[in-house]
Every structure is written in structure tokens, then in C-alpha cells.
User: Fold this.
Amino acid sequence: DKILSSFDVENIDLEVLLFQSGYITIEKVIQSPRGIGYKLKIPNLEVQISLNDYILRYLFNYREANDIQNQSYDAFYNGDLDVIRDNLKTLFSSIPYTNYTNNDLKLYEGFYASVIYAYLMSLGLDLISEDVTNKGRIDLTVFVSDKIYVIEFKVDGKTGEALEQIKEKRYYEKYLNDDKEIYLVGIELSSEEKNIVNFEWKRV
Assistant:
């Protein structure tokens, strides 16, 4: 109920702000003995891109973001993995050190995966996070034109471990009949460096 009635600007919840500004809409009204609840959604791709772009700019000191985002989109479209690697390194380099102060974010794979997920969503790419297969879960799958990128993340692991996991578990098999170019991408990060330390790929 607060999502529809709260107008206290000094003490406004994030979901209320997002709803009242049009970034999220009500998908479903849920009646329960405790009252009325709402299932929310992002209304369309344009809003999704805009919201993720805003989150990136808020969290990171990310200069020349538009140029780099356009470059990244083109790189995914063209299969230019060197550019993708360099732009993701730039992204992590732009995160202020204060974001890591007094917390253990840098230790968790989920943090790095979420940063990359938000970045790729801001490009308007079609993504599946935690993409389920019969052998496990792909950390992230990206679909661009005639290409599919199967991505695995590792933090503080052995060099080559991320790409090797994709090969060993054959995560890409579910897409072999799609008649598209498939790229296996292993991204390894260091909690000490707080950045990518190994980025390797193989085309199937």
C-alpha cells in the first residue's frame, strides 16, 4: 500500500521512488490475509537500459561512459573479445576504493558478476543470469545477433579455472543447435587487485 500512497520526500523508500518515477510498474496485485502486495516489474527495455545506466553512473566514477558502452556493444556484436576485456577492466578500475571500505564485497564472486551484469544490461543486451543446464549453471549467457557468449566467473582461483569449467561441464551444449557462433569466456578476478586478472576465451 505504501508504494501508492507515500509522498514523504524526506523519508521515501527506494521502491516507492522507482514506482513514482516510472522505473517500475505493477505487474500483479497479490491479496493475502495480511493485506495487499504487489509484484513489480521494469516496464520495457528502454527503462531497463536507463535504470542500469543510472546505477552504473551512481556507483562508479565512470568517465566517457557512453563512448565505452557503445564500443562494448559493437565488440559483442563483432566478437571482439579484446575490446570487451579492456572495457570491463576499465569498469572495475573506475570503482572508487571507498566502495570496498568496511565490507567484504571484494571477496565475493556475486559482487563482480553483478557489476558485469548491470553493465551489460545498460548496453541493452539479451542476458540470462544463472542459466541452468543439465550439468549445472552458467554464470551468465549473452545473446547478440548471431553470437552466444557463455561466461563463467571465478574469484581468487587458479589461472584458467573459469574457462576450464565451461569446457569440462560442456555448458555450451544446450545452444549447439541454435546455428550461432558460440564463445566460451572465462573471467577470473582478484580480490587483492579488485579487477580482472585473467580473461580468456575459445570459440566453439
